[in-house]
Amino acid sequence: MASADGERFDLIIRNGTLIDGTGAPRHQADLAITGGRIGAMGDLAKSSADRTLDASGRVVAPGFIDVHTHDDRVLLSDPAMTPKVSQGVTTVVVGNCGISLAPFTPHGRPIPPLDLLGDAGWYRFPTFGAFLDAVDRAPAAVNALFLVGHQTLRVGAMDSLERAATEGEIGFMRGQIDEAMRAGAVGFSTGLFYPPARHAPTDEVVALAEAVTPYGGLYATHLRDEGALLLDSVDEALTIGERAGLPVVLSHHKASGKANHGKVSLSLAKIDAAAKRQRVSLDVYPYNASSTVLLPGRLDDAPRILITWSEAIPEAAGRELGELAAEHGLTREDMAGRLLPAGAIYFAMAEADVQTVLRYPGAMIGSDGLPGGAKPHPRLWGTFPRVLGHYSRDLGLMPLEEAVHRMTGLSAKTFGLADRGVLRPGAAADIVIFDPATVLDLATFEAPETPARGIELVLVAGKPVWRNGGTTGERPGRALRRTRPI
Ligand code: ZN
Ligand code: CU
Fold this sequence. Notes:
alpha/beta, Urease, subunit C, domain 1, TIM Barrel, Dna Ligase, domain 1, 3 domains, 9-stranded mixed sheet, 8-stranded parallel sheet, 15 helices, 20 strands, globular, binds zinc ion, binds copper (II) ion
């Protein structure tokens, strides 16, 4: 890390505490940026720049990579990406849980959970390439990397979702996956838990995932069951990865429902054993409540359910389902039926399990934030500062260097992002500067849309996107394409 004596840069961040994203111990150094990339690191006292910034007492780290998002639509509709840049996020992976905005065939309807991304007006991209082109034409503040979703494909390709796809339908969907991969998608995602995909057998998923294999992409999955059948579902995901020859990412790892609390120790042991023969990783968000569409048949696991949005009864947002049911003299299930279409937060996890998964060295951090809705789950605004402040600093679950690694270097490596996620000369200047003493999530279930504390400056390609507690209007983000096998 030699400093270039006398060299002139666009920006020098002086005296910061560098945490480089590899997991290595922090060290004091200057960091220079030029042309949107890191130009030099080290003692740059002799170098000059158009602008300099003193980062004494502050951590300088690679911008965070949110590996699990549903930001497909907001990239276009809300390109400032305030919930993300306010946390230090500079890259998002979209298209998770089998839900992607593209490709959508004209006769398909965005039934739940596809409606989490937007209404029918937003499902307007007949090819994956057309969606990526739209993001190119109107870039967001952050970079995005794209998965193509099984549920979106099924809804577009099949006249009935209550069965396995026919050979003809599989052929059609494979063609769509092929187009998405050629356009630059990083892989294929499923959400086998959800009604549009529930009837897809393992063989169907393998046949589709195999279309990704020639391109060297990956397979990301919201498991078929995160409750009683958690371990079987992990086995299914590992089998799909092994048969298709793809790296597997297990999404938002958890055990749902009281009877299943503690099972994450078994699932993590299973994942460890599998990692000896295949590539497998996982992501996690730092909360003991989940959130998705309201599914009236699936309430049993959660004693407490908060409504995040309801089209039928908008004023129900923020209310507890049991209370609403009592007021209307209905069962919870009937009340849920009245609220549809709707979204909800489910309190069905054990805090001890959340901490067990967070401690797992291979666990990447992903928010699973759901943009939209009157009272979204606070993970949308709080995930990354919560890991840094609450879990790393205050509870001591992991050193700060490791927490940063699991939101930067590890994530970049898993998703094949060659020049992001680490601080080194030549890497993209996606950078966050935060105060390690004060960084903390402030978003709560009552007031979810509250920016975090302590995230002071966020740069994407060297351009500020978050500064002095606000967005800047800059849109330096890119639609990132997979350019080589992962
Ligand atoms: Zn999911
Ligand atoms: Cu998700």
